[in-house]
Amino acid sequence: CEDCGKSLIGECKLHGPLIRAKDRVIPSRARLTLPHYLTLRVLELRAGNQQILGVFAKKVIQKRTQFGPYVGQLSTKLTRYDESRLVLQVLKDGGKYFLDTPNEDCGNWMMFVRLARNQEEQTLVAYQHCGEVYFTTVKPIEPHTELKVWYAADYAKFMEASAVFIKEESDVCPLPPVAKEPIEPWICSSCRSSFATFALLESHQCIHKDRV
């Protein structure tokens, strides 16, 4: 205590405790990379004050808008697994590696994007290009809409996943229940063939373009 001139264990009984000044909280790297027209929302608080976050649009985002690349650490195994997020892998130097994000300082904002439970929710496709993973919008995204992603057709094969993911219920976000009616398929305007996802339709349309 500088007032008593004594070395004490704990608080000074005469002059009381010190006034503690806290450091300013600095946002993580991932949060600082969030584009200005996107925002993070807390969807749920779990035990230990763990936040379940979602990425939402603040203004209209046009179709065919590309985000990325996804930032993560190359790893042969995942140190952090979240069932509400996509597992991502890339080919590097002939090897297949996970894009691992053990904490928010090891990735960018794309680590917060949750996976789509069905075709109606899907607003983004994930795909690999030149050893990096990008997300691209498959339709215009309206303000206050959550960005949700699933694999593009070719990337789904690479990840050994289905071309479309359907889950009727979610324990993460209290969203309205998904209607159990058949989902409208994507129709090719050239030959009227139907496809389960926009990505499959896009791959099919490339065949028509090549023939032309």
TrEMBL record:
Keywords: Metal-binding, Transcription, Transcription regulation, Zinc, Zinc-finger. Residues 38-152 form the SET domain. PROSITE patterns: SET (PS50280), ZINC_FINGER_C2H2_1 (PS00028), ZINC_FINGER_C2H2_2 (PS50157). It comes from the Eukaryota. One of its GO terms (biological process) is regulation of gene expression. GO terms for molecular function: zinc ion binding. Transmembrane segments: none annotated. GO terms for cellular component: nucleus. Coiled coil: none annotated. Residues 186-212 form the C2H2-type domain. The keyword Transcription regulation applies. This is PRD15 protein. It comes from Semnornis frantzii. The lineage of its organism: Eukaryota, Metazoa, Chordata, Craniata, Vertebrata.
